[in-house]
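Q: My collaborator sent me two sequences in one message, no labels, and asked for predicted structures for both. Can we handle them in order? The first one she listed is below.
A: Yes, handling them in the order given. First sequence, followed by its structure tokens:
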Amino acid sequence: MTEFEQIELRHRAQIESAVLRAGLRSCDLAFANIFGWQHVYASRVAQCQGAIVLKYRIDGTPRVAYMEPLGDGDWQCLVPQLLADAACEGQPLRLLLSEQGVELLATEEWAVDCNRDAWDYIYRREDLAQLPGGDFKSKRNHFARFVNRYNYRFEPLSAVHIEECLRVDAEWRERRGTNDVGTLRRVGLVGRCAARR
């Protein structure tokens, strides 16, 4: 049985190194997000068959999912262990995979569902600074409305802003009918595709 443990700061270098080696680009694999949201998603980490595996609760519900295994582990040996862990939770195995992960797992016994709404959108820094061309027209319009509507200024984020940030967050949640940060939903799930047996 795979032993999952609470994610601690001591896991940072190991997780970041594995993500970099894997070449996966997802905000959900940033250690700050994994560590910072673990109280909402009950995220856990394990070493399994030479790979690092991250396990979490989908949107903070009892449904369990596993992020794409990171490392040089043998997937043929790893998947049965994850199947067993999911079975102990009384659930099917849900793996959130990149395109490469789907290819590694490609077999007739797996169903693969792609959820485009969960994809990360990655932009070039220069494009976000300049917003050039027709593809960025709606973003330029949003920016223009913001500039015309609000009196704003840029300040480096520091400890003196914490109370104000918490106040703004509380107001935002109240307007949306929730006072519990645990009920807030993330925009998307990790990775591009979910594979299940």
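Q: And the one she listed second?
A: Here it is, processed independently of the first:
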Amino acid sequence: MSKYIQIEFQQITSDQSDVLLAQLSSIGFEGFQEEENSLKAFIPLVAFDETLLKEITSASNLSYIQSTIEATNWNAVWESNFDPVIVEDFVAIRADFHEPIEGVEHEIVITPKMSFGTGHHATTYMMIQQMRDINFKNKTIFDFGTGTGELAILAEILGAEKITAVDNDDWSIENANENFEKNNCQKIDLQKAEDAGKGNQYDIILANINKNVILDNMSNLSDQLLSNGVLLLSGLLIEDEADIVNAAGKFQLKLVNKTEGNNWIALKFTY
């Protein structure tokens, strides 16, 4: 069975935890467990580069505890730490072992695994907030970096005609597919891909990943966005805004809305 590296940070603030989440996800960490004043991050042993980790931690003067664990030990821990996520009166995200949530328009039921973006994270919360004000009916959607697939599921619930969801991580593909089946999704085409691709056209593009991946794919994302389409981005820290806005501006994309939460931002662009 595959082994994973666990990195544990102790006695850190919530702000430090938020920054680490973004930085570590950009270098291949694919699971996180947040507790009060601590953060555990997980990465496949074969993908672990300690040099990159030390660049991040030394810049912030942070120490960590490193250990090697078996992947099979995690799901029970993940489930025990998974609480329902409620985004206003709009959407509730819960596991199937939770009771149904009352007083919301929509429910999404997922299997909580290691995939990044289970809805607890501020960026997923803000993406869902923004999606509430976008018309998805009969639209074509591209969910770039689908993770657990929650945003693609919500797009179908909101009336999208066709959704293409991609991720480059085998664990995320497996988890997203399971969640699509659990929510009886019929309009999502799930694909494994290393980048945003090219040659397709979409009314709405969703990308909740991180700054570097978004910048690397901005050209292809903009090329695939239809006129008057919407590009919704997150996985971004407040200090990432200028770089993202400048890159989008090179492709005539204009920032029309921004939300903030816990040092993170979600940015909505259109032509």
